[in-house]
Amino acid sequence: MANPDKHTTPETSRGYETRDANVAMLLAATAGLALIVVASFILMRMMFGLLDTRNVAAGRSEWPLLEKNPLPPAPRLRVDVPRQLRELRAEEDRILTTYAWVDEAQGIARIPIDLAMAIMAAENGKVAAEAPSVEAHAEAPLDAGAGQAH
């Protein structure tokens, strides 16, 4: 077995270091590091000032990214998907089940989809078993508030 006393010195014989750290050296290193950090900040500020001055002198905007459209292209992020889907389905149901003018000047109107299918089936000689009759829809007025094209 190796002799444990071979590497023992008066400084390590107690199991820990008995000398103090060099405080002057630690303070000098800390001051040097702080000086480097402060000098870096000063130099960066001077560089940004120089670049801003050059941009203004050249007639360029100080904030070129703000000149562009800040909104992303469509389709945009959906915030409340379930609510937006319910609204979309309700609008589609309203369009498919109501009367409205598409182009009143030309006499083009929108009719409910079940009536349109019954008319098409009757015109083609087919009788739709569960389709509502044309007479059931004949007396329903056009929706005056929905005069926009859909």
Topology readout:
Elements (H helix, E strand, L loop, with lengths): L22 H35 L23 H17 L2 E4 L4 E3 L2 H11 L10 H5 L12
Antiparallel strand pairs: 1-2
Task: Report on the architecture of this protein.
The chain has a two-stranded antiparallel ribbon with strand order 1-2. Strand 1 (100-103) and strand 2 form a beta hairpin. The chain has helices at residues 23-57, 81-97, 113-123, 134-138; strands at residues 100-103, 108-110. It has 150 residues and is mostly helical. Among the domains are: 22-62; 96-150, no CATH class. The radius of gyration is 42 Å and the shape is elongated.
Briefly, what is this?
This protein is mainly α and 150 residues long. The chain has four helices and two strands; from the N terminus they run ααββαα.
